[in-house]
């Protein structure tokens, strides 16, 4: 059975960009019902001969729900379905209260969590990661989904946990 990797995080951190970079096919829309556009949320991925499935939980949306509820449900689905959870943060904005809210939900799982600090477009000082370490979820992997930085390190970390 293929392992399942769920990508979680508050909106706009770059979950879908990371998802698109990791999956083989770059199709981002799965269904187009008039008036309803649903993001494609499942994709097949492969790294170093290991095959796994990726879920973009940001594509799971609920009608008429407040942000907090939606992100909570996305994180809970990830905790149930996934073998490994990738928690995406935004380097440009730093750690926010919304990130801490996601973290509080994730603290309840015993599944492996990998922190991926995205939008790290230019490599710099290692000190940049200390803020994110305060979550207590381990050392982050610094990545840029749009520039392709750190993706190999992240995938190494993922397949190591699968
Ligand atoms: P999501 O809401 O978490 O799925 O975030 P998206 O993947 O839709 O990305 C939100 C915005 O951030 C888009 O405009 C992306 O192009 C941008 N973005 C994603 N990854 C990066 C990155 O590594 N660097 C920069 N500079 N922008 C990024
Ligand atoms: Mg998205």
Coarse shape: globular
* CATH topology heading: Rossmann fold
Low-confidence stretches: 28-37
Sketch the major β-sheet. 6 strands, mixed
Q: Portion of residues in helices?
A: 25-40%
The CATH fourth-level homologous superfamily: P-loop containing nucleotide triphosphate hydrolases
Q: Could you say how many structural domains there are in total?
A: 1
Distance between the termini: 11 Å
Gyration radius, to the nearest Å?
A: 15 Å
CATH C-level category:
Alpha Beta
Q: What percent strand?
A: 25-35%
In words, what does this structure look like?
The chain has 162 residues and is α/β, with parallel strands linked by helices. The chain has a single domain (3-161), classed as Rossmann fold, CATH 3.40.50.300. The chain is built from five helices and eight strands. The protein has helices at 15-22, 67-81, 97-106, 130-133, 151-161, and strands at residues 3-8, 29-33, 36-39, 42-47, 50-56, 84-90, 113-118, 141-142. The strands form two sheets. The protein has a six-stranded mixed beta sheet with strand order 4-5-1-6-7-8, sandwiched between helices. A two-stranded antiparallel ribbon has the order 2-3. A hairpin with a 2-residue loop joins strand 2 (29-33) and strand 3 (36-39). Helix 2 (67-81) runs parallel beside helix 3 (97-106). The longest helix has 15 residues, at 67-81. The N and C termini lie close together (11 Å). The site of magnesium ion (MG) has 3 residues, from helix 1. GTPase that plays an essential role in the late steps of ribosome biogenesis. GTP 1 binds at residues 9-16, 56-60, 118-121. Residues 3-162 form the EngA-type G domain. Belongs to the TRAFAC class TrmE-Era-EngA-EngB-Septin-like GTPase superfamily. EngA (Der) GTPase family.
């Amino acid at each position: 059975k293929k392992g399942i990797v769920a990508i979680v995080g508050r909106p706009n951190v770059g979950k879908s960009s990371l998802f698109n970079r990791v999956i083989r096919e770059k199709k981002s829309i799965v269904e187009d019902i008039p008036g309803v556009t649903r993001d494609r949320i499942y994709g097949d991925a492969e790294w170093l001969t290991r095959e796994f499935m990726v879920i973009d939980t940001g594509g799971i949306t609920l009608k008429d729900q407040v942000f907090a509820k939606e992100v909570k449900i996305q994180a809970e689905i990830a905790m149930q379905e996934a073998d490994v959870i990738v928690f995406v943060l935004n380097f440009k904005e730093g750690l926010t209260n919304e990130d801490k809210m996601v973290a509080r939900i994730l603290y309840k799982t015993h599944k492996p969590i990998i922190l991926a600090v995205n939008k790290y477009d230019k490599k710099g000082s290692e000190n940049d990661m200390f803020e994110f370490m305060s979550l207590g979820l381990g050392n982050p992997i610094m990545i840029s989904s749009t520039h392709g930085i750190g993706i190999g390190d992240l995938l190494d970390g993922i397949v190591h946990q699968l």
